[in-house]
Amino acid sequence: MWNVQAGLLSVAAINAIYNVVAQVIGRSSLDPVVFSTYRDFAAAPILFVLALPGVGRYIGQGPAGQTAAGRGLWPKTRSDLFRMALQGALGVYANQILFLFGVELTDATTGSVCNLTLPVFAAAIGMCTGRESFRWQTILGLCFCLAGALLMKLEAGPREGGSVLGVLLLLAGSFCSAVYYIIQKETLRRYPAVLVTSWEYLFGFALMALSATILADRRPQSWVLTNASIVMLAFTVLFNSVAKYLLNSICNKYVSATVLTCWSTVVPVFTAGLSFVFLSQPLRVSYLGSLPVLLGVFLVMRAREDSRKEPGFAKLQELEPC
Asked: What does the DSSP assignment read for 9-51?
């Protein structure tokens, strides 16, 4: 189980490094929707290539006569294909597009704060659908995580991002991500994580490309990659897309959606530390908010371990692999 937690820790570190790299390179003139389209376009084939080595083992477990690697990359049923399309629409497309437009109507700080609601949505959906057992220890841990992360995020005081519609879009994006992680679990029981992630990115790219043709800025500079944007795109594709989504999918097979998303609250902690070391940004008193964040993550993980010892845990496993 600790290797899974290490994977989730790596995902948080990738997000924090991305935040620091974005500060160094600065904002690109590239339209955000176009940038996301390029990202998904590059990430999808890389994921499919990574899926090929495991196709042989996957085919060996499949029906007789299924011998071609190309066929092994295809979902077994139409319902599975539709499910992966839904996951791509929620986890790769919807959360991105809603975040982009939400931040445009508010600001980056508001977007970061709204992202902290992800574990709350995941826990609420999991408990309401019976996929997770209700434990006060989990609720307390989430409260600690949210309180600490909010303290760190709101250090600069109030911003001008007061659009109600923007906040609603940001919250809707977090909700889509929570639903994505929960419904993805069923698919991960039948297919390799890298294959599931590949199809999700393919469908996500299709929807993002359609959005770019309709919504993106028509000016040429909004579509042309500069040297800085190429570096940023390469990092985003390899780490913030391929590595992060693949690690999340693998870890999602073994932990609850609440534990998975709870680790996102440590991103502000890592970002503050990296900014201090590499950008010489001063440490602030509000960074003490990292202490309740770490305590909250510990409580959520401890609650999960305690629930594994309960008699009813085996029944929950039928709904959700743990």
From this structure: HHHHHHHHHHHHHHHHH---SS-HHHHHHHHHHHHHHHHHHHH
**Most distant pair of Cα atoms in the chain: their distance:** 64
Which residue reads 């057992």 in tokens? 133
The per-residue pLDDT for 228 is 83
- Are 67 and 134 within 8 A, CB to CB? no
Return the amino acid letter for 237. V
Q: Tell me the three state secondary structure of residue 85.
A: helix
d(CA 38, CA 224): 11
Beta-carbon contacts of 93 under 8 Å, excluding residues fewer than 6 positions away, are: 203, 204, 207, 208, 211
Token representation of residue 242? 């391929």
Contact, 76 vs 84, CB < 8 A?
A: no
CA dihedral sign of residues 42, 43, 49, 52: negative
The model's pLDDT over 108-139, given as tens digits with 9 standing for 90+, comes to 767 777 788 888 888 888 888 887 777 778 88
Which pLDDT tens digit goes with each residue over 168-223? Answer: 898 899 999 999 999 999 999 999 999 999 999 999 999 999 999 998 888 887 88
C-alpha–C-alpha distance, residues 302 and 297, integer Å: 9
CA distances from 168 to 103, 122, 204 (A): 11, 17, 22
**Which tokens go with 140?**
């307390």
Q: Which two tokens stand for residue 172?
A: 């809707």
The rounded distance, in Å, linking the Cα atoms of 60 and 88 is 26
Per-residue model confidence (pLDDT) at position 282: 78
Query: For residue 262, what pLDDT band results from cuts at 50, 70 and 90?
Result: confident
Tokens in use for 299? 């409580």
